[in-house]
Every structure is written in C-alpha cells, then in structure tokens.
Design a protein that fits this description.
about 240 residues; 12-stranded antiparallel barrel
C-alpha cells in the first residue's frame, strides 16, 4: 500500500506495493487466488519529498518495500529509503499494518505506521493514516489523512490532509496526477504543499516527472528543503 505514503515516489511505490501478487508457491492446483498476496517494489528518485519537504537533502534516494496482504483486507508491510542525516541516521524504515476494503464504490484503508530511523536519536515516531479513493470518469479522486498523536518525539498533535487526483491521458499508458496537502501542529504551522506531474507505465515499471512546492519559507535548513523542485522517479513492482 504505500503508496508508501511518503512522496511522489513513495506514493508510487506504495501503490505498486499494493498490487496483489501471488505469494511464491502459494497458487492452488485449480488456479484459485490464494488467501495471501505478496508484492514488492523498488524505486530510485532524484529527490525524496515527504509532504513537500526534501528528506534526502535534495539528493537522489533509493527506496523499496515488501507488502503482505490477506483477502480479508488485512495487510502488513515495510518500506525503506535512504535519507539525509536525521538524528544520526541515514535510513528511514517504515513498518505498517492496517485494513483496507471497498464500500459503495469507495476504496478505503486505515493504517498504523511507525517511522523508524536506525541508529538515530529522538527521531522515531508513530502515525495513523486514512485513505479513501473513488473513480471519477476515467480517473480517480481521493483524500489522504494523517494524525500524529502526542508522543516522546512530538510535543503535541500533528495533522495532515491532502486531496489527490489521477486521470489517464487517452489510450496512452500516461496519466496526469496531483495533490494539494495541508499540515498543522507540532511539526509545521499551517503548511501547504502541492504537486502536479505525469507518469508513464509499461509492464512492471512506472516512471514519473512532477513539480513539487510548498508555502513554507523558513530561514533554516528546513526552509531550504521546502523550496520548489522538479522530481523524477522510476519504480518497479514485483
């Protein structure tokens, strides 16, 4: 699922990872779909952006994940990315589990996600995520929501909400996508971020190019990493 959840490439990887693939050797003799589905994803991005902010110091990042889902709707997974130094760590490891399904034409999921930074100090935290998507014509629209409750590394609540959309361009394997997000709380004060781009899919590969920007203009390093940028990514699903 994942799209991880984290950036343009993260959303692509998360979406690719959510594609159900039979677990190795689990297909029954009569060809019935197995109860458990295993999938994996890998990607390289020119800049790892999370909600508009570069977490790779505006440098390229390597990412990948594995997901296991059950036909009941339950799923677990992990996703990792190289990052700029964060509390002494240069790796982000996401561990998550949740439930997803469909109701009245709306695909939804609820996910509990831990952001772990191996070797880092005072940077791990936990978030609850919700997502809802529905078809609109030939495309889709949706809403993503994130809530970080008060915890050791957060002095107070933090919320994030984003509207998203995707539409294919004619009969070509090309889609236009975008999102508009708002974040407020302990991490950022009334921050907006937005993104618009194109993706091209062929076989197990998806390439994308997008423009990302925010209204955050702090004078510190975080402000520099929030400035506008063009992001390229290449993701593969297995």
């Amino acid at each position: 699922m994942a799209s991880s959840v984290r950036s343009t490439a993260g959303f692509l990887a998360f979406a690719l990872g959510a594609m159900p693939l039979p677990a190795a050797g689990s297909e029954s003799v009569d060809g019935a779909t197995p109860a458990f589905q295993l999938s994996a994803n890998a990607s390289i991005v020119s800049d790892y952006r999370f909600r508009g902010i570069s977490l790779s110091g505006k440098d390229p990042a390597i990412q990948g994940g594995i997901d296991l889902s059950h036909d009941s709707g339950l799923f677990i997974g992990t996703w990792a990315s190289s990052i700029a130094d964060s509390g002494g760590s240069n790796t982000e490891l996401d561990l998550y589990g949740g439930y997803g399904g469909s109701l009245a034409g709306i695909d939804y999921s609820v996910t509990a996600l831990a952001y772990v930074y191996p070797g880092g100090q005072g940077v791990n935290y936990f978030e609850v995520l919700g997502s809802a998507t529905t078809r609109l014509g030939t495309g889709s629209v949706g809403l993503d929501m994130g809530w970080v409750p008060r915890q050791d590394n957060f002095g107070g609540d933090n919320i994030y909400i984003a509207a998203k959309g995707q539409v294919p361009l004619g009969s070509l394997p090309v889609s236009m996508f975008g999102h508009l997000g708002y974040e407020n709380g302990d991490a950022y004060d009334r921050k907006w971020d937005w993104e618009a781009g194109l993706s091209y899919a062929t076989g197990p590969l998806t390439a994308s190019l997008s423009y990302v920007d925010t209204n955050y203009s702090g004078a510190d390093e975080a402000g520099r990493f929030a400035r506008a940028g063009v992001i390229a990514s290449l993701a593969a699903s297995f």
